[in-house]
Specification:
The complex is a heterodimer. By secondary structure, chain A is mainly α. Chain A is built from 15 helices and no strands. Chain A has a domain of about 140 residues. Chain B starts with 6 loop residues before the first helix and ends in a 12-residue tail after the last helix. Classes of the chains: A mainly alpha, B mainly alpha. Bound molecules: protoporphyrin IX containing FE (HEM) (2 copies) and fe (ii) ion. One protoporphyrin IX containing FE binds next to helix 6, helix 10 and helix 12 of chain A.
Chain lengths: ~400, ~140
């Protein structure tokens, strides 16, 4: 979100429509978020549901959409204010392809969130529309946001012609949506929906790695054709890393279990967990870290942080990224064993017995998690390291 | 990406392609909705089952369990737990969770449900088990 505030005005070459509104929304969001967490910690979930009026409109207790009703409403208010603010900003200034794609992404995000308010008694319908929020977010509109952020940083750091970059961006987001929308079908294999989704879902989602691959090629291609050496090497590293890791996590690990005959065995196992971790980090964590890395020094009045600070940041990059690769590998190993022992073998074992047998991998995963945390701390620390800085460009 | 292929062509393909595939998706969804009544057993949904679903949600069972393969992967799949334990078995299991958990084992909380609530939960889980979900999971272990 912060990233969008930074980018839209710069792309539109104008000031934010209402900085005051932005500030107010920021605090509402923070306070609402904090209250929700306090609520989770302070009282049992069922009591929380009662206190927050879940019975007026029952929406809680569904994976990822657990938030109490007031939090959900708060999210809508903030999102609408935020969108209003950005859209007005863009209408006022220049309308570039990058900001168009970003805004379409953000509007889509808000629209599909509305499905989280729909919770029918019929579980099949509940699950069917739950995915309209979840899948159409991560494999649809969020990818537009991702693509436009990447394109933005690449224009700024490589100096490659805007026409070229924006053409790439359109191609990438086209591929994303034509594969990703019907790709939703890869969640409609085993939840009571008709069998033809096994075909639609498998075929279209099998093509979903293509836009991710295109993003990686795009990032490397643009950096290789760079017309200038931007002093912020760390941001360029994040951009390249984001492309590669998103392709690995979403593209490769997604493809691994997206075909219906494979998914029949891996559905809801540690394989899903492995994929979810790497895809989320590679795409959406890294793109945010990239935006922060690019914008933070500039907001503090310099083109890039000092060499010393950037070296630290690059250490953070490698620690977090390598740790995430190992987390994914350990979870995948656990997942393969789990699927084998519990679902494929001739004498399938109960869930709890299997979990016991694969606990070694969870321990290794735990240690990789510690390394990841160290990387994250270094990342934050790198912004406080002084040294000789580049002058603002 | 040669000269002949311009940015505005790319843009038009983006808008056209998106609209086309979104409409196709809507058409498929529409067709699914006409077929669902035969598969999701909605005619059997009673107020008791609705109550069971509500209990399932407000107690955040999905925070540990999966249901038809979706949820968290900390505890067993429950879409077919009725097959493993039977009605009485499921009730007894939920009722018998020790308050302090079981040392050295993943534990499930004690929810102190009333008999009526337990019956509702079982009715809900039975309903889920009756849905035609293309023969998932592969075996009774879930
Ligand atoms: C950055 C993009 C992506 C993110 C953040 C992401 C994340 C996730 C997450 C968190 C889940 C678990 C959902 C649940 O709890 O049930 C999931 C499931 C799944 N994803 Fe992705 N994903 C991405 C892209 C992809 C792509 C491109 C593919 C296909 C090539 C894919 C294939 C799948 C499949 C088949 C499942 C269902 C697994 C199951 O049956 O349990 N994902 N994804
Ligand atoms: C009201 C909500 C819940 C219901 C209806 C429920 C129901 C059940 C049932 C029927 C089983 C037996 C499954 C089997 O052995 O195949 C089970 C096992 C289990 N549940 Fe839950 N559960 C709920 C919430 C939770 C929560 C919130 C947690 C995690 C904090 C949890 C953790 C576990 C664990 C770890 C087991 C395996 C226990 C063992 O085998 O010792 N459950 N649950
Ligand atoms: Fe998906």
């Amino acid at each position: 979100m912060g990233g969008a505030y930074y980018m839209i005005p710069e792309e539109s070459e104008t000031e934010l429509f209402s900085p005051k509104l932005a500030l107010a929304l920021f605090w509402i969001f923070l306070v609402a978020g904090a209250l929700t967490i306090v609520g989770y910690l302070a009282v049992p979930y069922a009591t929380l549901a009662e206190l927050t009026g879940n019975s007026i409109l029952e929406t809680m207790g569904r994976e990822f959409l657990e938030q109490p009703l007031p939090t959900k409403l708060g999210i809508v208010v903030v999102a609408l204010g935020f969108l209003f603010n950005l859209t007005m900003t863009m209408l006022k200034g220049k309308k570039t392809a990058i900001s168009m794609v970003l805004l379409i992404g953000l509007w889509g995000l808000a629209v599909f969130f509305l499905f989280s308010f729909y919770n029918p008694v019929n579980v099949v319908l509940d699950k069917f529309f739950w995915w309209w929020t979840v899948h159409l977010w991560v494999e649809g509109v969020w990818e537009l946001i991702l693509g436009s952020f990447l394109a933005f940083v690449l224009i700024k750091t490589t100096g490659v012609d805007r026409e070229v970059i924006e053409k790439w961006l359109y191609v990438i987001v086209t591929l994303t949506l034509i594969t990703g929308i019907i790709g939703t079908g890869h969640h409609y294999f085993w939840i009571g929906t008709p069998e033809y989704w096994q075909w639609w879902g498998s075929i279209f989602s099998a093509l979903e790695p293509i836009p991710f691959f295109a993003m990686t090629v795009f990032a490397f291609n643009m950096v290789n054709r760079r017309r200038r050496e931007h002093p912020n090497k760390a941001a360029v590293l994040w951009a390249l890393g984001c492309g590669v890791m998103a392709f690995l996590g979403a593209g490769v690990w997604g493809f691994l279990h997206t075909l219906a005959p494979v998914n029949y065995y891996t559905h809801g196992s540690q394989i899903t967990a492995a994929h979810g971790h790497m895809a989320f980090y590679g795409a959406y964590a890294m793109v945010n870290l990239m935006m922060i890395s690019y914008a933070m020094p500039i907001l503090r009045g310099r083109a890039a942080n000092s060499n010393k600070s950037q070296v630290l940041e690059m250490w953070a990059f490698w620690l977090m990224t390598v740790a995430m690769v190992f987390i994914t590998l350990f979870l995948t190993a656990a997942g393969i064993l789990q699927v084998w022992l519990q679902r494929v073998s001739d004498a399938p074992l109960p869930f709890m017995v299997v979990q016991d047998k694969i606990s070694l991998f969870y321990w290794m995963r735990e240690w990789a998690g510690v390394v990841f945390l160290i990387g994250l701390i270094l990342y934050i620390a790198s912004f406080f390291v002084g040294g000789k800085e580049e002058k603002a460009a | 990406m040669s000269g002949a292929f311009t940015k505005s062509m790319a843009r038009n393909i983006f808008y056209g392609g998106t609209v086309f595939f979104f409409l196709l998706f809507l058409a498929l969804s529409f067709d699914t909705h006409s077929q669902l009544p035969k598969r999701d057993m909605r005619q059997n949904i009673t107020p008791q089952i609705a109550e069971g679903k509500k209990l399932w949600e407000v107690n955040n069972c999905i925070g540990c369990h999966t249901l038809m393969g979706e949820g968290a992967y900390f505890a067993p799949e429950l879409g077919n737990v009725i097959v493993r334990y039977g009605d009485e078995g499921v009730k007894a299991f939920i009722q018998s969770r020790p308050k302090e958990g079981i040392p050295g084992r993943r534990s499930m909380p004690q929810f102190n449900f009333t008999d009526e609530q337990l019956n509702a939960i079982v009715a809900f889980l039975k309903h889920v088990n009756s849905i035609n979900d293309a023969n998932w999971p592969p075996n009774d272990q879930g």
